[in-house]
Every structure is written in C-alpha cells, then in structure tokens.
Write a structure and sequence with these properties.
By secondary structure, the protein is of the alpha+beta class. It has 2 domains: 88 residues, Ubiquitin-like (UB roll), CATH 3.10.20.70; 233 residues, Glutamine synthetase/guanido kinase, catalytic domain (Creatine Kinase, Chain A, domain 2, 2-Layer Sandwich), CATH 3.30.590. Helices cover 23% and strands 26% of the residues. The protein contains 7 helices and 14 strands. Strands 6, 7, 8, 9, 10, 11, 12, 13 and 14 form a 9-stranded mixed β-sheet that branches. A 5-stranded mixed β-sheet has the order 2-1-5-4-3, covered by helices on one side. A hairpin with an 8-residue loop joins strand 1 and strand 2. The chain starts with a strand and ends in a 7-residue tail after the last helix. Its EC number is 6.3.1.2. Belongs to the glutamine synthetase family.
C-alpha cells in the first residue's frame, strides 16, 4: 500500500505580516488530485489565530502541486477556516472577487538572501558594506552575484512543481534577487506566489540562510524590495484606447481613501520604501505614466505598442505583501472604474 506525504501550507495570524506554516499528512493510495485531499485542522492558539479554549482551525485545500524535493510528496496550499467553516479573518484569499478568472496577475517578487550569522544580506562583509549599487543588477561573477546556487535550485524546484515561474534575476542591491510568477486568475496567482515563497524558504534553509522579505531591510542608498503587480482583465486586454487606460489608472487615485485602501494591504513599513527614490513614487503621492518606473502605476510600453491592449503594473506592493490581498484590492478598484466593459 503506497503512502504519500501531503505538506499542508497555510498563512498564520502573525502581525503585522503573516508568515507561512506547514505540516505533513501521510495518506495511503493518494490519487494526486486536489479533491482527494481531506480537510485537516491545526492548533490556532499556536499561530495567533484562535484562543486556547477553542483552538481548532480548519485547513481547506485549494491548490496542489507535486513536491520535487520529497519522495512521494505533494504541496497542498490551504485556506484557513473557522471551526464552523466560515473564512477566518486572516484568510485573504476569501476576499478575492474573481470567480471567472478574468483577471490575470504577474507578480515580481523581490527579496534578500540573508546571512543569519552577520544579520546582513549575503555578500555583505561582517563589518562595513560592499561596493555601492551598480554592478549587482542582472550580474554575473562571484564578486557581484551572491547565492546563485540557492536561486538556481529554487528555480528548478518551482519548474518541477508545475508553478508558472517566468524568470529570475539578480536585483539592484547586493544579495537581492527576484522571481516572477504569472497565472490566469487571481486565486491561482496568489496560490503560486505563496508556494514559490515556501519553496524558497525551504531551499534557503538547506543552506543555513534566511530570506528577508522586509521591504527596506537596509537604510541608506540601497534599493528596497517590492512585489510589483502586473495585472489585466478582459477590459484592459481588449481596450484599444488610451482613454480606457486613463480612466482605469485614475480610479486608483480617485480619492485619498482609495489610495489609503491600497497602501493598507501593500505591505508593512512601505513608507520606508516608497520615498520617491530608488524607482518608487512617494507614498503620499499618486501618479501614472507610460514606461515610468518612478510612478505608482506604470503603463508598459508593450501595452502602448500593442494598440493600448495589454496590462498595467502597480509598483507600490512591497515584498512582504500578501498577493491575495493585493489582487483583491486591485480587482475592486478596476471594477470601480467608470468605463464601458467590452461587448
């Protein structure tokens, strides 16, 4: 009788930034299908999601991928439910309004490989700093790119797990890297980002390294880390008009309350990153523009060259943001735009 390892992965109740948790369930003669993953439970009092007197929280499987790093293993992404089956307050996935998967998302996930002994990015000397920014972005060579073995292993694991990872690159600061994930459907995009994050944490763990998701772990003239959100729906993919794009972009800056609602789910401490420097707009301003990486919303040149049919990039979400909550907020704002939907 064959046995399989199902790694149930979920988001905890840590504040202000949720973290990943997981545990293994052994099942017999498992089919590999999502519908054959049983509901499970965990002690919510140990994850800041329940009181000790009524501590059971439920895990509802929502996505499954083969685990290429474990024999007979599967990665099972889960939503957290209350004991009565309703979405837990920490369940950002349940807030997404995209049941028809009309919204497509591509997330650019930046992060730092972190030396746990020096408490600095990998590649930083124990005392002092490396050379200033300049040679590290998309770099090659032992003096420029730090931790490539970790990054390459993670990339292979993501591909073998069936995630739609679209690329990797060294980023602007020393020890900083990025991967990109794309999916048709906001739920699936969020699932894949979280599983990719989980695999990265587990890969770095093997090397005795940490992953620093904070948006600005280094003060001074060093880039922060973002999770730029590239998004489209049928309206943007079929628009064929600059006016449609202007109307949608203007909806994101329609009122101070709308701007605030986005910033509230775009990651903690974003004021440290959104300063108007290092390819960002200031957190207290909103702007958009074609090919403008200093704007809140960038209209890619590819969208313009394709006759105003394409996508937008919200550059404000930071590296520690929850892609579920980011997607949910973007969808709500795009739907609020006063523009005719395509026939």
């Amino acid at each position: 009788m064959a046995k399989s390892k199902l790694e149930y992965i979920w988001l905890d109740g840590s504040e202000p930034t949720q973290g990943l948790r997981s545990k293994t369930k052994i099942v017999k003669d498992f089919s590999g299908a999502l519908e054959d993953c049983p509901m499970w439970s965990f002690d919510g009092s140990s994850t800041n999601q329940a009181e000790g007197g009524a501590s059971d929280c439920l895990l509802r499987p929502v996505a499954i991928y083969p685990d290429p790093d474990r024999r007979a293993g599967f990665l099972v992404m889960c939503e957290v439910l209350n004991a009565d089956g309703t979405p837990h307050p920490t369940n950002g996935r349940a807030t997404i309004n995209d049941d028809d998967a009309d919204f497509w998302f591509g997330f650019e996930q930046e992060y730092f490989l972190w030396d746990l002994e020096t408490n600095k990015p990998l590649g930083f000397p124990a005392n002092g700093y490396p050379r200033p920014q300049g040679p590290y972005y998309c770099s090659v060579g032992a003096g420029n790119a730090y931790g490539r073995e970790v990054i390459e292993e993670h990339l292979d694991l993501c591909i073998d797990a069936g995630l739609n990872i679209e690329g990797i690159n060294a980023e602007v600061a020393a020890g900083q890297w990025e991967f990109q994930v794309f999916a048709k459907g906001a739920h699936e995009a969020g699932d894949q980002v979280w599983v990719a994050r989980y695999l990265l944490e587990r890969t770095a763990e093997k090397y005795g390294l940490g992953i620093n998701w904070h948006c600005k772990p280094l003060q001074g003239d060093w880039n922060g880390s973002g999770m730029h959100a590239n998004f489209s729906n049928s309206l943007l993919r079929e628009a064929g008009s600059r006016e449609v794009y202007d109307t949608v972009c203007q909806a994101f800056g329609a009122t101070p309350d709308v701007i605030k609602a986005h910033i509230e789910v775009y990651g903690e401490d974003n004021h440290l990153r959104l300063t108007g420097l290092h390819e960002t707009q200031s957190i207290d301003k909103f702007s958009y523009g074609v090919s403008d990486r200093g704007a809140s919303i960038r209209i890619p040149i590819a969208t313009v060259e394709n006759g105003w049919k394409g996508w937008l990039e919200d550059r404000r979400p930071n590296s520690a943001a929850d892609p579920y909550k980011v997607a949910a907020r973007i969808i709500r704002t795009v739907r609020s735009a006063d523009v005719m939907q395509p026939a």
